Amino acid sequence: MAFLTMFPGAFFFFSVLMLCVVLIPPLYCVIDAATRSSQDFLLADSNRTLWIVLPLVFGILAAIVYLAAVLPKLKAAAT
């Protein structure tokens, strides 16, 4: 903490960095799920509405699951 009090700009930079880490992946997942077709979700045995709502409610945890487990299935289903 002494570092952050000696350099107030570092606190701002750290805050912005953490905000980006927490907000950008869930927003990416919501946009990705909203722009994919419902047919892709059916072929991937998943639910489109669920993956639009979950990242908004659970944030980074749902985004990690979406990016690691659901997105590869959706990409495979789209081809």
Topology:
Layout: H1 2-6, H2 8-35, H3 38-43, H4 48-58, H5 60-78
Helix pairs in contact: 2-4, 2-5, 4-5
Top keywords for this entry?
single chain; 79 residues; mainly alpha; 0% strand
Overview of this protein structure:
There is one protein chain. This protein is mainly α and 79 residues long. It has helices at residues 2-6, 8-35, 38-43, 48-58, 60-78. It is built from five helices and no strands. Helix 2 packs antiparallel against helix 4, helix 2 (8-35) packs parallel to helix 5 and helix 4 (48-58) runs antiparallel to helix 5. The mean pLDDT is 89.
Largest sheet data: none
* Class of secondary structure makeup: mainly alpha
Number of E strands: 0
Work out the helix count.
5
Task: Report the span from N to C terminus.
Answer: 50 Å
* Integer-rounded radius of gyration: 17 Å
Q: In percent terms, what proportion of residues is strand?
A: under 5%
Question: From the structure provided, what is the oligomeric state, counting identical versus distinct chains?
Answer: single chain
Low-confidence stretches: none
Percent in helix: over 70%
Quick check: average pLDDT? 89
Shape: elongated
N-to-C series of helices and strands: HHHHH
